[in-house]
Amino acid sequence: MSNLGSCNTTNQAVIQWVKEMADLCQPDRVYWCDGSEAEKQALTAQAVADGVLLKLNPEKLPGCFYHRSNPNDVARVEQCTYICTDVETDAGPTNNWAPPKEMKERLYGLARGGMKGRTLYVIPYLMGPAGSAMSKVGVELSDSIYVALNMRIMTRMGRIAYQQLGTSDDFNRGLHCMLDVNPERRYICHFPRENLIISVGSAYGGNVLLGKKCLALRIGSYLGRQEGWMAEHMLVLGVESPRGEKTYVAAAFPSACGKTNFAMLIPPERFAGWKVWTLGDDIAWMKPGPDGRLYAINPEAGYFGVAPGTNYKSNPNAMQTIARDTIYTNVALTPDLDVWWEGKDGEPPAQATDWQGRPWTPASKEKAAHPNSRFTAPMANNPALAPEVNDPNGVPISAIVFGGRRATTMPLVFQAFNWTHGVFIGATLGSEMTAAAVGGMGQVRRDPMAMLPFCGYNMGGYFRHWLRMRKRLKFPPRIFHVNWFRKDAEGNFLWPGFGENMRVLKWIVDRCHGRADANETPLGWVPGAKDIDLEGLDGFTAEHLEEALNIDLEEWRRELLMQEELFLKLYSHLPKELIFQRELLVSRL
Ligand code: SAT
Ligand code: MN
Questions:
Q1: CA dist 84 to 176, 186, 187, 197, 289, Å?
Q2: Which of helix, strand or coil describes residue 196?
Q3: CA 93 to CA 448: how far, in whole Å?
Q4: Cβ contacts of 112 within 8 Å, gap of 6 or more
Q5: Dihedral sign computed on CA atoms, order 175, 177, 182, 185
Q6: Residues of the chain with pLDDT under 70
């Protein structure tokens, strides 16, 4: 019988489960997190003593720490990620599937005695604002102090979760064992019917911070279908006009396509008096409200953002957010204990230690920071954090935006004709692959609603759920598609991006309020060159904008064929509405 330590909850279901898992994993100690400031200090000191964290220069980066992961463990691994449902078709052709009983046996086998000599951290956490009917409680049991400290930033962690839970046994159970961090024994497995997650053999980000992709998206999407809400891979922002009108926008982009930058956008000078507020940068839970609008909460409480490319030009609010109380993972370290990454402001340091702990200089061939190196920072640090982020009711969404990283084909922005057409646009979303997942960088892959790696059930059923949501909404959000990444024949970006995206955002907001013009095209409503404010955008003319908005029929022929591949893969569960939408698009083109 394991020593359970000083348990800090009276919830019998939690205690019982911790007992079972401690008996299985046999940790030397069980530590029950309470989320307090004193605990943060103590755990951080322990992590430093264990060599898991390194304290960064307190003058430059107060409260910040540095971590290197195992070089074989630097991104999510989709090949090791499973949805374990009774019937294989429930997981669908886009997920790895395994039968729950067999998979649990294998995982419990791996976990048996797997925490000997280690501490098991009991991490209770709340996804979403306290007291919200949309929030969910999870309890993650992990033998990683790094996970405990990251979960403390990424979620509302500690007693607050037990308060929300009360005496209920309705919480997500998450077991995480690092084992020997061996890719051969790496599994991230979801058991939606039991609201259970088991992750072994990794210690990195989305594989192990179980509240994030595992609960908030994979299990969340499954629960959302059952309970009539949506779990989406979306940032949420609020646009405030000079008159104080606030319009809320949710936007889905695949991992590492700039969601954090967009969520923290600072409008350019031309938009004096406008303000963009951040609700969330990665995940939205959305539910129809009593007034027939779609309401969103951000289940998270922090940002697990990509470091490379983050600087005072691309994202000043992120730079301020990560200036304190932040954990940096797999970036480069300078001799004065500052951090560096490719695309940070200023000159590269003359010398540094790279993400693998090797000496690095600007002459080195390899990158100093891993392309998927990350910061974990509390949302409270964000100067543009929307106060509504703690509103238990969430915020009403006026626009849903889909976007991908596409060098060709996709115009800067267009608007769907209606909800069903918008679902088709989201369902056929494509993007060039990034470093956030292990795999073929740069290739275009279909990533429906940016949920391909995160949908916890059959993608066809997920599309059907989207279509059905329309019936529950009196005022459905308008749906848009954007592409900040289109290039000209020489490979230069056609659109300046970053803060200038405000110009496109303003058009989107105005469309929602019936205030902006657009032209009907085969793809949807596209702004004319005069409909997007270009004033103050030096050297960027209406002709440039037209190029960025252009629809090239030859490119679209190829696009349609690529889209067809996904539809064929999903055919058996594909709602007929989407097949009709495809036919309509073909005939319009
Ligand atoms: O999955 S992570 O949380 O590591 C990051 C991402 O891919 O969005
Ligand atoms: Mn993400």
A1: 17, 15, 12, 10, 32
A2: strand
A3: 13
A4: 24, 25, 26
A5: negative
A6: 1-2, 438-441
The reported pLDDT for the residue numbered 440 is 62
Q: Kindly report the number of other CB atoms within 10 A of residue 458's CB atom.
A: 25
Using CA positions, which residue lies closest to atom 1 of ligand 1? 206
| SS3 category, 351 | coil
The confidence score (pLDDT) of residue 1 equals 58
CA of 282 to the centre of ligand 2 (A): 5
Q: Which atom of ligand 1 is nearest to the CA of 437?
A: 7
What distance, in Å, lies between the first and last C-alpha atoms of the chain? Answer: 68
The closest alpha carbon to 135, from 204, 227, 207, 37, belongs to 227
The closest residue, in CA terms, to atom 2 on ligand 1 is 206
Q: In what order do the strands lie in the sheet with 352-353?
A: 339-340, 332-333, 352-353, 359-360
Domains of the chain: 12-45+75-227 (3.40.449.10), 232-301+386-588 (3.90.228.20), 303-381 (2.170.8.10)
CA–CA distance, 473 with 420 (Å, rounded to integer): 13
Expressed in angstroms and rounded, the spacing between residue 3 Cα and the centre of ligand 1 is 34
Could you count the other beta carbons within 10 Å of the beta carbon of residue 237?
26
Active site residues: 257
Q: Looking at ligand 1, which residue's alpha carbon is closest to its atom 4?
A: 206
Is 581 within 8 Å of 420 (Cβ atoms)?
A: yes
Q: Which two tokens stand for residue 239?
A: 């646009």
pTM over 0.85: yes
Which DSSP category does 126 fall into? E
Q: Which residue shows structure tokens 């980066």? A: 61
Q: Residue 441's pLDDT is what?
A: 66
What integer pLDDT is reported at residue 439 of this predicted model?
A: 66
Q: Which of 493, 563, 486, 479 is nearest to 251 (CA)?
A: 479
